[in-house]
Amino acid sequence: MKIAVINDLSGMGRCSLTVSLPVLSVLGHTAYPVPTAILSNQTGYSEFSFFDFTDHMDEYVGKWIKNKIAFDVVYSGFLANEKQADQIDNIVENCGKKGCKLVVDPVMGDGGQMYATFDDKLCEKVKGLVKKAYAVTPNFTEACLLTQTDYEKFSANVTDEDFFESFYGLAEKVQKLGPQKVVLTGVERDEGKHFVYNFILDGDKKNFTKNLMYGGHYSGTGDMLASVVAAGCASDIPLAKTVSVAADFIEVAVKDAFLNKIDKNDGVNFEKFLRFLSF
């Protein structure tokens, strides 16, 4: 299957395109990258260079259209501005096969805060993509932004007794925007040990994954999960199985990075485990 991948390219930090391309390839798909921005390294480092690719995207995608490329899946991640959101529509409309599936990782924020590069107008554009999507993979913060849910109030009101009900409810609010499949990612919970949950809605089917979390947040893990989801959508793999495969793969890679004291900005040691990644 052919998958268009629209995301930033960071030279250091093992995230975005540098993660998505090998993950999609090892799962048997051909990935076609569209850089939204080119960075020396991801923005968690103290210094980075940033080149906005917007002015080059019309020509870049225009050549694809003229060469009559046709995609089974269009998968979008980080967008630098509103015009790039319109470019996603352009790719789906002019390069998508009949039945092309749009998979959206709505990269808008984390930790209860919108990213510095985002504003309300761009969030509305991303929300528009979510409404048209086949599958979406928001984290907790992004699910709140998409559904106008107060992150702090929601967090304060979740109890152990209604933990699952609360997060399934939030995922359902995202689903009501339009997508059939929703993965609410990276929900942390301390149960004596630190766990991370993903809440899965596949139509009316509910599932979740639960994995040990080692050492906190590592660069690129969300991109890995979204990439596996995009691959699963291309192959018509049930979403629960897809997310389970992704979550277990990420846990092993994170544990290895933690044990080897890898800087979190450098991402996880996923390369040595790629050969085990399969549905």
Summarize this entry quickly.
By secondary structure, this protein is an alpha/beta fold.
Strand content: 25-35%
Q: N- to C-terminal separation?
A: 15 Å
The CATH superfamily is known as: Ribokinase
Structural class: alpha/beta
Low-confidence stretches: none
Strand ordering within the main sheet: 3-2-1-4-5-8-9-10-11
Mean pLDDT, all residues: 96
Gross geometry: globular
Number of domains: 1
- The CATH class is identified as Alpha Beta
The biggest beta sheet, please? 9 strands, mixed
User: What is the fold-level CATH name, i.e. the topology?
Assistant: UDP-N-acetylmuramoyl-L-alanine:D-glutamate ligase
Please, how many helices? 9
Radius of gyration: 18 Å
Helix content: 40-55%
Number of strands: 11
Q: What is the second-level CATH architecture?
A: 3-Layer(aba) Sandwich
Secondary-structure element order, N to C: EHEEHEHEEEHEHHHEEEHH
Question: What do you see in this structure?
Answer:
By secondary structure, this protein is α/β, with parallel strands linked by helices. It has one domain: UDP-N-acetylmuramoyl-L-alanine:D-glutamate ligase. Helices cover 41% and strands 25% of the residues. It has 9 helices and 11 strands. A 9-stranded mixed β-sheet has the order 3-2-1-4-5-8-9-10-11, with helices on both faces. The protein has a two-stranded antiparallel sheet with strand order 6-7. Helix 3 (82-95) links the parallel strand 4 and strand 5 (96-104). Helix 1 runs parallel beside helix 8 (221-234), helix 3 packs parallel to helix 4 (120-132) and helix 8 runs antiparallel to helix 9 (239-259). It is globular, with a radius of gyration of 18 Å.
